[in-house]
Design a protein that fits this description.
The protein has helices spanning 2-7, 14-17, 43-46, 55-66, 79-93, 109-124, 141-146, 150-154, 178-187, 215-227, 298-311, 316-337, 358-370, 395-411; strands at residues 22-26, 29-32, 37-40, 101-105, 129-132, 163-166, 198-201, 204-205, 211-212, 231-235, 259-262, 274-278, 343-347, 350-354, 373-374, 376-378, 384-387. The longest helix has 22 residues, at 316-337. The chain contains 14 helices and 17 strands. Helices cover 38% and strands 16% of the residues. The two termini are 38 Å apart. The strands form four sheets. Strands 4-12-11-10-7-5-6 form a seven-stranded mixed β-sheet. It has a four-stranded mixed β-sheet with strand order 1-2-3-15. A hairpin with a 5-residue loop joins strand 8 and strand 9. The structure holds 4'-deoxy-4'-aminopyridoxal-5'-phosphate.
């Protein structure tokens, strides 16, 4: 531990919540160097939707390495990239009747968001991006300008500009449809709001507290964007790749975004990779206009293609997610019924309990970790316990994790008996 505290920057965060040294991981189970075992309900903040070291992905990567497969290729053509692109078209885009071109960007979520914002500005000739209350889009300055979280924004120490902030669905409670406000602001030429290049949003706000946009609201937003010549960028970095029950989080809704940002679980194995999907007519980039060294991470392409082949050939995984989602939601509803002022939030395997107060959630996180469960909190006050197990979590691991969660809440006397 001393090595870290003495030499690693104070900026480190997760290690303060889970203060152990981890050595191995498989599926939804992680081991520390003292031999303790943990059920993982954090899944690399959504980057390990298929669990740790999924054997087929791991073997595909080992084979590629042993065959001296090209690892870094900038954005040169590589066989591994071609295989991924073809697989993504065949297994993801075509069956969903989606027509998108793929842009590979520097391998983090924030870079996908930066690229999408830049392109939207270029295509429309407009400056403003409309982002939403409690939205989270990354830590580089463009994405940070679109991020709502005060503690992250304060760290910028420079201006975070060219973003207008609009109320997300439900921000003022269920009675007020925020689309009415948004429409009024953006159609009144003297409201002081500039018509934006794009609306940038998550369909479920992962860091912002598992707030779910309703289909109706999302459809209204997309229709309105078309009316005023703005684009819609869906940030599916955390909610995508199956987390909400379908590959894209918007599939259950009746509208299609103009651009989609993907990262986190796109490679499937936890290797960094990110991509922007865009309507083909929006692809007005000049060669190299948004570039980056690590856009050709071929090991990530290999595991990403394997993930698609293993999990998205048919709807088996989707059915499993739906069944697990029901199971977890029922259990959380029962727990929440015992905690005054709490409620269950989220959808798919992106579920949580709003504890109503941050101290409660923080105490559960610590107690659960001591008992062998890695679980995170989210929301504007860190008041929501967030369950993000691997989509492929086994029944025993899931049962163990849920039991630890319930036992922790009971031990802390946060719930009525
Ligand atoms: N968008 C969303 C919705 C995210 O949840 C995150 C990361 N939590 C990002 C963007 C940024 O991704 P990265 O940390 O890889 O830059």
């Amino acid at each position: 531990m001393e090595t870290f505290t003495r030499l690693e920057s104070n900026v480190r965060l997760y290690c303060r919540k889970y203060p152990k040294v981890f050595t191995q991981a498989r599926g939804a189970t992680q081991l520390d160097e003292d031999g303790n075992s943990y059920v993982d309900f954090l899944s690399g903040a959504g980057a390990l939707n298929y669990g740790h070291n999924e054997p087929r992905m791991r073997d595909a990567m080992i084979n590629y390495l042993s065959g001296d497969g090209v690892i870094l290729s900038l954005d040169m053509h590589s066989a591994a990239k071609r295989r991924f692109i073809a697989m993504f078209e065949r297994l993801i885009l075509t069956p969903r009747k989606l027509d998108y071109k793929m842009q590979f960007v520097g391998p983090t979520g924030t870079n996908a968001v930066e690229a999408a914002m830049k392109l939207a500005r270029k295509v429309t000739g407009r400056r403003m991006i409309a982002a939403f209350t409690h939205g989270f889009h990354g830590m580089t300055l463009g994405s940070l300008a679109a991020t709502g979280r005060g503690s992250s924004r304060r760290g910028a120490y420079t201006s975070l500009s060219d973003v207008i902030r609009l109320p997300y669905d439900g921000y003022f409670g269920p009675a007020l449809n925020t689309m009415e406000l948004i429409r009024k602001y953006l159609t009144d030429p003297s409201s002081g709001f500039e018509v934006p290049a794009a609306f940038l949003l998550e369909s479920v706000q992962g860091e912002g507290g598992l707030n779910v946009a309703s289909s109706r609201w999302f459809e209204e937003l997309v229709d309105f964007a078309r009316e005023i010549g703005s684009l819609v960028i869906l940030d599916d970095v955390q909610a995508g790749c199956g987390r909400c029950g379908t590959f894209f989080s918007f599939e259950a809704m009746g509208a299609v975004p103009d651009m989609v940002c993907l990262s986190k679980s796109l490679s499937g194995s936890g290797l960094p990779m990110a991509m922007v999907l865009m309507r083909p007519d929006l692809d007005l980039w000049e060669p190299g206009e948004h570039t980056g060294t690590f856009r050709g991470n071929n090991l990530a392409f290999v595991s990403a293609a394997t993930a698609l082949e293993c999990f998205w050939k048919d709807d088996t995984l989707q059915q499993q997610i739906a069944a697990k989602s029901d199971q977890i939601r029922k259990r959380l509803e029962a727990i929440s019924a015992r905690i005054p002022g709490s409620r269950v939030k989220g959808r798919g395997l992106f579920l949580g309990i709003d504890m109503g107060r941050p101290e409660g959630a923080a105490a559960v996180l610590a107690e659960a970790f001591a008992r062998g469960l890695i679980i995170e909190v989210c929301g504007p006050h860190d008041e929501v316990l967030k369950l993000m197990p691997p989509l492929t979590i086994s029944e025993p691991e899931l049962a163990a994790g849920l039991s630890i969660l319930e036992e922790s809440i009971t031990a802390l006397e946060l719930a009525k008996p």
